[in-house]
Amino acid sequence: MKVEDAIKGRHSIRAFKPDKVEEKILLKLADAGQYAPSASNLQSWRFLFITDSKIREKVDLFSPGLSGKPPVILVICSDMEKVHIKGGKNSEIYGCLMDASMAAENIMLAAVAYGLGTCAVKSYNETAVRKVLQIPERYRVELLLSIGYPLGEARCPQRPEPESVTFFNEIM
Predict the structure, then answer these.
(1) pLDDT exceeds cutoff 90 at 34
(2) I need a surface site. Which of 48, 67, 73, 168 has the fewest CB within 10 A?
């Protein structure tokens, strides 16, 4: 698959088939995430795939952005102990979320190649999600991704022509 096809084929999916996603595919998605750029090469991301239906239901209670009952919820965390040892304040404030977001994009693009749909979610109660998943203090939850096989056709919002959002040398 060409990268342009994956980019244009990626849509935020909010309705999923109940079909299980194989663990070997999830590991390939995590591998794609690891190849994202990383501020100061911290690579502090950690990927927690929630595949158990009872645990997913609990996470869903505290995550209004999740919808469509995805068969997998990926929780992307940052290992803050690693950040404190190797990174600075800027990494803690901005770098971790930036790294997690770039890893998420790699994962979402790789998911397209496997026929999977995804949706990035930042609307959740972090305290509740941490408690439900028993996430140790050293990890900060950066974002969630719903993952699964799409139910129905994705709705793709219209995008402007590149010339209407692109500038050279100065922005008007």
Answers:
(1) yes
(2) 168
| CB atoms closer than 10 angstroms to residue 86 | 14
Contact of 111 with 6, CB cutoff 8 Å: no
Count Cα neighbours of 46 within 13 Å in the Cβ-side half-sphere: 15
How confident is the model over 53-109, as pLDDT tens digits?
999 999 999 998 888 889 999 999 999 988 877 777 767 777 889 999 999 999 999
The pTM is what?
0.91
User: For the chain, what is the HEC assignment?
Assistant: CCHHHHHHHCCECCCECCCCCCHHHHHHHHHHHHCCCCHHHCCCEEEEEECCHHHHHHHHHCCCCCCCCCCEEEEEEEEHHHHHHHCCHHHHHHHHHHHHHHHHHHHHHHHHHCCCEEEEECCCCHHHHHHHHCCCCCEEEEEEEEEECECCCCCCCCCCCHHHCCCCCCCC
- Report how far Cα 83 is from the mean position of its chain's Cα atoms: 20
